Amino acid sequence: MSTLQNKRILLGVTGGIAAYKTAELVRELRRTGASVRVVMTMAACEFITPLTLQALSGNPVHTSLLDPEAEAAMGHIELARWADLTLIAPASADFLARLSGGMGDDLLSTICLATRSPIAIAPAMNQAMWDAPSTVANMTRLRQRDFIVLGPGSGEQACGEFGPGRMLEPVELAGHLELLFSTEALTGKTVVITAGPTREAIDPVRYLSNYSSGKMGYALAAAAAEAGARTILISGPCQLAAPERVELVNVVSADDMLQACLEFSPKADLFIGAAAVADFRPATVAEQKLKKSDADTMTLELVKNPDIIAAVAAQGQAPFTVAFAAESEQVLDYARAKLARKKVDCIIANDISAPGIGFNSDDNAVTLIDRRGETRFEQQSKAQLARELISRLAERL
Ligand code: C5P
Predict the structure, then answer these.
(1) Alpha carbon distance 287, 282 (integer Å)
(2) Cα 343 to Cα 277: distance, rounded to the nearest angstrom
(3) pLDDT at residue number 288
(4) 20 to 30 A Cα–Cα from 328, which one of 134, 188, 314, 357?
(5) Does any ligand 1 atom lie closer than 6 A to the CB of residue 312?
(6) What pairing do the DSSP bridges indicate for beta strands 320-327 and 346-351?
């Protein structure tokens, strides 16, 4: 369960081009189970309509301090009291200046003065405006007053310039908010996770492998570290950067991965096998590059690779062991059979035939199966799904 479940998030949207991303942000927050109410400044309404955010949040959007009807429905003080957390995203340079100056000349700035909830700000502006001495001074004052500053990121900007000032992506913002409410469910625990494909050498220049991107395993490692665990990520070759506070152990073949897992898993409380381990490897690895022959066919003899996760689960003091079952048909039946065959504690079943989820995509939807029963996790970003899975698994430890 997400730490944002049933939390009340007051989202303040100010006038900047990044306001268009708040549609996705509201959806992301609601996906975690949070209630969202939106307050927009007049300038924000030029970039995205209140109607859009009303439809996505499921609540009326508030824009005016001096509208008797709106105040009668839910006034600025009630909104300020309602929030468990106030998030200003995007926070424009102008709004940061007004916040730092303690202004109360519109609904959002008044709520910021009145609320006792923590206030997080996600600045978004042109890189020169972010570097302007006035903005730097305003940010220093806001940090001193315990405002939580999320970002900004750096990169290409809507104005065509390059540098710091991009609003963090909605999924990153939701992740930061989850951390703020995190109870550090895995503090003091060690988690070992395998991720990515393995490469099985044929000769010095060729190998057998698969299309695994490693995204699910890396997202799980990030979520485990966020939850306070010492996290060791044993990864086959992939293009992803190690998440923060994660110890990355790079391996190439299934045999290398097995050795690393046997080394690290005895210290682990939780082991998750998210790697797409090659089932077979060439029986021999040619020392020199194989030459083209005149024959039209070529035969490679393959031998079975060790089952890493079964080896981990079979150890004397095995950690709580979780396998993935990526299946394209009879997903749940095969997954249940795998739970018994591999003697693991839990299986996460993944339908790789469904479009838009699973292998190599950014989203996933899975069913968690253990001896207590089955729980469905609907389609969502792998980052968000990973947090939900980690918090569910933490309950089991
Ligand atoms: O046997 P199958 O490949 O379908 O099982 C998938 C699960 O087993 C995944 O958790 C994967 O990481 C793990 N596995 C393993 N070693 C293998 C094959 C799969 O650890 N040789």
Answers:
(1) 13
(2) 18
(3) 95
(4) 314
(5) no
(6) parallel
Residue 355 confidence (pLDDT): 80
Mutational pocket test of ligand 1: of 324, 328, 348, 393, the residue with most ligand atoms within 8 Å of the beta carbon:
324
Report the pLDDT value the prediction gives residue 385, as an integer from 0 to 100: 87
- Dist CA 295 CA 123 (whole Å): 64
Strands 153-156 and 162-166: antiparallel
Report the run of H or E that residue 296 belongs to, with start and end. none
| 219 CA → ligand 1 middle, Å | 18
- Among protein residues, the one whose CA lies closest to atom 9 of ligand 1: 324
Name the active-site residue from 45, 112, 159, 261.
159
Alpha carbon distance 26, 117 (integer Å): 19
Query: Is 238 annotated as catalytic?
Result: no
Which among 164, 60, 64 has a CA at the least distance from the CA of 122?
164
Ligand 1 mean position, distance from CA 350 (Å): 13
The preferred substitution site among 256, 304, 308, 346 for testing ligand 1, maximizing ligand atoms within 8 Å of CB, is: 308
Structure tokens given for 336 = 């249940």
Percent of the chain that is helix, strand, coil (3-state, to 5): 35, 25, 40
217 Cβ closer than 6 Å to some ligand 1 atom: no
Distance of CA 277 from the midpoint of ligand 1 (Å)? 6
Instruction: State pLDDT tens for residues 172-202.
Output: 999 889 878 876 789 999 999 999 999 999 9
Q: Tell me, what's the pLDDT at 380? A: 75
For residue 32, how far is its CA from the centre of ligand 1 (angstroms)? Answer: 29
DSSP three-state, residue 344: coil
pLDDT at 244 over 90: no
- The pLDDT value recorded for residue 183 is 67
Q: Is 272 in the pocket of ligand 1 (CB under 6 A)?
A: no
Atom of ligand 1 nearest to the CA of 309: 20
pLDDT in tens, 37-80: 999 999 999 999 999 999 999 999 999 998 888 888 888 999 99
The residue-averaged pLDDT of 22-47 equals 97
Sign (positive or negative) of CA dihedral 114, 119, 124, 127: positive
Among 216, 218, 213, 263, residue whose Cα is nearest residue 245: 218
Cα 344 to Cα 94: distance, rounded to the nearest angstrom: 55
**Ligand 1 in reach of 273 Cβ (< 6 A):** yes
